[in-house]
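Appendix B. Chain record.
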Amino acid sequence: RCPSSSPRQAMRREDEEGQARRKREAEAQAQEAKRQRALLEWQKKRKTRQRVEDSDDDLQGEQEEAGADEEEEEPAVVARIEKPKVKRRNCLEWRQHQEEEQRKAEEERRKLKEEAESRRRAERDEELNKFEQEQQRRRNFVLRRRQQEEDEKQREAEERERQKREAEDRKQEAAERKRMAAEEKARMPLELEDRKKEAAERREKERLRAEEEQRRREQEAEERRIREEQEAKAKQEEEQRQKQAAEE
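Structure tokens predicted for this chain:
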């Protein structure tokens, strides 16, 4: 995966969120403008209606004032005075209510904007944190791999050096043995001849001893055979004598 894919995705997500946020703000502004226009139209209509009602009330008051007594005039005056006040009070309450609603809506939009901004910052921080962790993991992996390769190269170099030293040691030992053998051969040629003669004499003595032992065994075997034959012959003669004595 490309290492820059996460920042690119974060930037794309941030742009999309910005577009959505601007769209929501534009819609909210359009709704607010529509509401303000409706309020102005309503106020304009109310003012026109109020002027008409005031004119009617004035005309009615003049007629009543001309043809009625003081007792009948008081309700008309009260009605003429109180009616606009009630309407003005209702208009003021409605305007205050609208201002309160507008303030609440603005407060809600501000809270939503702050929450969206906070959520966007949190997501961006989380994405950056994940990206940094991924980068750190990749760097650690590369460092471990590089360290392993260096350790492997070091072990291979040490093994080659050890084998080289062992080969040199074996070569030196072989040369030393060869040199010592040559020196031994050059220093004691007579002793070698004497040892060879002694070995030949020992072999000859052993051969003669073996032949003597063989002859002795053969002689003992011959003597034993003769003795057994004599004993058998004597036994046979004894049996013959006993047989003759029994017949007599």
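Further analysis of this model is presented in Appendix C.
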